[in-house]
Amino acid sequence: LPFKVEHRSRNLAKLHACILKGCEIPNTLSRDCQDLLTRLLEPSPTKRISMQEILRHPFLVS
């Protein structure tokens, strides 16, 4: 999992919090990459980016 913690349950709790509250996307990534990650991690399935939109996203097209 993406977080370095001693216990798996803490890792899952951090992941759950990240999903619900939104993750901090590093500003060292390109704006297109930040946008794609933000849209991929959208908690609401109805608001989340579609597969067609992903394939047309500037980050993948460039």
Automatic annotation (TrEMBL):
Coiled coil: none annotated. GO terms for molecular function: ATP binding; protein kinase activity. It comes from the Eukaryota. Residues 1-60 form the Protein kinase domain. This is Protein kinase domain-containing protein. It comes from Rotaria magnacalcarata.
